[in-house]
Specification:
231 residues; mainly alpha
Amino acid sequence: MISVPTIRDISIAAGKVVTNARELIEEAELLLNHKRHARAFVLGHLACEELSKFLTLFYFSFYLLSGEKKTWNEIDKYLFDHKRKLRMMLDMLHIRNLLYAATPENVSELTEQAKMRETQVPAYNRLKNYSLYAGLGPKGKVFVKPSEVISEVQAKAHVSLARALLTDCFLEQYEKSGILEAIITESYKNVFRCLNPKSREYRSALTQAFAMTIICSREQKIGTKNRILPH
């Protein structure tokens, strides 16, 4: 029998994804403290990939809300595609940057930076391999081990990025069972039931929904009224 998840199933899965990402970050920080920079880097990288799975599940929950039936096998293909996870991570980073760093003057610049990072997805994936395995280095001429490729600066930057995505997007709240389901069904069900999942507007609406979810979480936590939405 083909298993079709409910929004509750997706919500539970999203909580487990966030918990695992948080644990990866904590373990990466322990490695940093012991100067194990290559291994800290790869755990920071994997934490970013794991957090990107939250966004994938967030998006798929709206497909279910719209009446689209997706099986776990279909969803699983997205969750274990490394390059797709990196692209979703960059989507999260772009949304975060628009919410926290955007001004009327630099929105276009931030968007161009996001497009440029997208072209670097294969390079990011190769760097993950360099942090794990001994082999020919980035220039393809010298056989190297991970600790000869990954610097302390790179490791700290990658772990800090993972921590920032977790914290700035307020994802830890979703470790509680059912939180994502409640937000989606209460806040968005009428909007997304009126949209065609295959339409151009649908992806834009998904991005806006994720941004608004971050904003609502931020306001509940720190009481801010400042809102900057991506267009």
